Amino acid sequence: MRFRLTPRETSFYDMFAASADNIVTGSKLLMELLGADTSARAEIAERMRAAEHAGDDATHAIFHQLNSSFITPFDREDIYNLASSLDDIMDFMEEAVDLVVLYNVEELPKGVEQQIEVLARAAELTAEAMPNLRTMQNLTEYWIEVNRLENQADQIHRKLLAHLFNGKYEAIEVLKLKQIVDVLEEAADAFEHVANTVETIAVKES
After folding, report:
1. b/e code 11-35 from CB counts within 10 Å (16+ = b)
2. Residue 5: its pLDDT value, please?
């Protein structure tokens, strides 16, 4: 661990943990959407929108702390990248739920539940990892597993696209469903960006 002569601002750790916990909330709402009747989806979307706003507030708090802190626990650029990537995850998850409601999707294609299960697992891992930024310990397995999950998400996404283009769906339905599964794939990519940023921070701090 790099030796420092000056104290570091430690509130960042709590804020990153809070942001990650909020992502777990978002992933649970995605799971709830899967089993919900179409009549219940608007209310779930409203709760997801509230969670996304909470995520925005958490991100802005990190940026404010970053701009007002003379000493930071690690590189400012890495703090910015980590906060932004966490925020991206919530944005993508909220967008996916919103699209399901706006497009009046009656039935999601088989395989979407696998996408959401991957996101839920990545959310749990990310929330578990954030407190470990304090010590930079026990993080290697986290970023390895999230990268593995992202690879799994890629495979699921490709199978979903093949399913959508097999001729079963009307063209307009394909466009709607493809946008939803693409946004869920972007959420998986954002989880990987968070894990890669954590790895970069850990390497610099070792």
Report:
1. ebbebbbbbbebbbbbbebbebbee
2. 33
Q: What is the mean pLDDT of residues 100-111?
A: 93
Round to the nearest angstrom and report the end-to-end CA distance of the chain.
Answer: 5
Distance of CA 9 to the CA centre of its chain: 25
Q: How far apart are CA 74 and CA 119, in angstroms?
A: 27
From the list 82, 69, 90, 193, the residue with the least C-alpha distance to 130 is 82
Band of pLDDT at residue 205, cut at 50, 70 and 90: confident
From residue 171, alpha-carbon distances to 112, 185, 192 in Å are 19, 21, 32
Per-residue DSSP letter, 185: H
Given a contact cutoff of 8 angstroms between Cβ atoms, the answer to whether 97 and 30 are in contact is yes
Whether the CB-CB separation of 116 and 34 falls below 8 Å is answered with yes
Amino acid at residue number 198: V
Amino acid at residue number 49:
R
pLDDT of 69 reads 85
Instruction: Give the count of beta carbons closer than 10 Å to the beta carbon of residue 187.
Output: 28
